[in-house]
Amino acid sequence: MPIFLRWFLRLGPINPIAVRLVQGGSRRTRHLYIRTIYLGALIVTLLYLLLVMPAGGDLTQLKLAAAASSAFAVVAYLQIALICVLAPVFMAGAIAQEANPRTWDILLTTPMSAAEIVLGNLFGRLFFILALLVSSLPLFALTQYFGGVPGRSIFASYAVAACAALLVGSMAIALSVSRLVGKRAVFAFYVSVVSYLAVTYGVDNLLGVGGLVTWMTSINPFLALRALLNPTGYAAYPEGSQTGLAAWFLEKPVMTWCLLSGGLSAALMIASTITVRMGGLAGLGGLGGRGGVPWYRRMFGLGAKGAQSRPARHVWHNPIAWREAAARNATFGRMLARWSFILCGALWALGIVLYFHGGGIVAPETFRDVVYFTVIGELAVITLVAVNMAATSVAREREDGTLDLLLTTPITPASYLGGKMRGMVAYLLPLIAVPVGTLAMAGLYVLAHQAGVASRTGGVMVTYALFNAPPGVTQSAPAILPEGAVSVALVTVPFMAFVVMVGMQWSLKSKGSLSAVVATVGLVGLVAGIVGLCGHKAGVDIPFVGAALAAMSPATAVNAAIAPESALQQTVQSHALASARVSLLMGAAVAALAYIAVVYGLRANMVHNFDMTVRRLAGVA
């Protein structure tokens, strides 16, 4: 075999690290379940969409082609959503396992080159994601039997999804090589991916004019896929209308996304290859400082990095609750991340309101969209933070031996579990205040406009038509319900407590932190999805009671507070908007009580089985 060919193959197909990862992952039952659920979700969705296509004697080839095209678009969106969700899960091992310095010490003693180490980790973990994409190719090919789905669109959608997976994988490997992160960075990486997608999507809605693409389209895979599948409703600019960089971003968004993601992935891999044998960024000096206590550490009440002493702290009456809340703010990085989220969220909310007041956002409907995507994105990030905290709370202490020490104290299981929940909820409260404060700020501005304190051209009301009203007769609703923040706050805090209890339950009975995080994400996502979809459907179709049920999930409560005339349609149409607003508040209170009851039940069950579960997993790390 030629030397060049052997060198090239060792970078990919016969790379020892890639072969080890593929062989090991192929034997795991969890990976089998993920592949089965992924392909099953696509099959069920496509089958359902094809079964509900227009039927009857006048079914023509044109209608079949239109139905197949619509079904393909929905399944393509679902596929890239699943890839964006699953890619960080498969890549989490690169951060959690390879971030261990001992693992790198062993790898660096082998005769493998730096490129083989880096690319072996990338290709070995990326293989499973690409296998998911390839497995669905026959499913997409079936849509061509009906017509309306060109083969170019199918392969272009695969290119968008594959580039997204490649970029996520490259970032995970780069974080692993940097040696600046550990297992706790797994969920921060997941949260960053979700936050980036949500923020760029929201900014696109803010900048979008006339159904045309924006600068955000080329840096978000969902927007790039939207430009590909909806060339009329989300059209690219005509060729030749732009020059320079704008021509790439606005005229060819799909190609630009693929080139940008591929180029950035290549740059990350080159940087990782150069620094892997130097100890990563940590070996080059890291991000730490030297000398006395820096001003930014003093601002947070911290001593010098690596110091033998620290300032005294005020301890709560419940030591477990205090320890759980204080441990999340034990380092400068954690404090900075938390307060940066709060400060940036507050400034963003203030900027939205001022921009709307100044006329930058012309239509109240656009103002609604910006607030909606902002609040939903922030709630998604907070939920992921809560899942990560709760799912690692007990498993981490069992892994490092802290749980064994706590069990020798007079602390009971009830006080231990209750204290942990209280501490984590207390830590989350300032974060929850960001989306609630955003809604409150927008709602108070609308209220001030209605009271005559503030005014803007175009007003703050949205018009809608009643079913039985004569043509041209419309009603008006506030762009944001002033009391919407109260409804969202009532249901969000107990919901986060529920998320914490679910995460703690999985953390208690799981062997490791990573498996507990994955299981908690799946269960919380399933429960939130079912409750949210049922609440949304009830709010639209059932009068009065449906408006109350719409508050059963934070997402549906936000939707009802921002767009009540559509989210609470039947109640608004039959009992007027005022009745819907009262029902929404009552439903939020009932939902809060329901979540509190579920939290209490989960805690009682965990207390009852605590000793048995801990003994069964004793010594397991």
From the structure above, extract its key features:
621 residues; mainly alpha; 2 domains; two-stranded antiparallel sheet; 1% strand
Task: Walk me through what this model shows.
With about 625 residues, the chain is an all-alpha fold. About 70% of the residues lie in helices and about 0% in strands. The protein has 25 helices and two strands. Helix 21 packs parallel to helix 23 (about 555-560). The longest helix is centred in the last third of the chain and has 48 residues, at about 570-615. It is globular and about 80 Å long.
Tell me the major beta sheet. 2 strands, antiparallel
The SS-based structural class is: mainly alpha
Strand content: under 5%
Low-confidence stretches: 281-292
Q: How many domains is the backbone divided into?
A: 2
- Distance from N terminus to C terminus (CA atoms, Å) equals 45 Å
Which of globular, elongated, flat, extended, rod-shaped describes the shape?
globular
Helix % is over 70%
Mean pLDDT: 81
Query: Radius of gyration, rounded?
Result: 26 Å
Number of strands: 2
Order of helices and strands: HHHHHHHHHHHHHHHHHHHEEHHHHHH
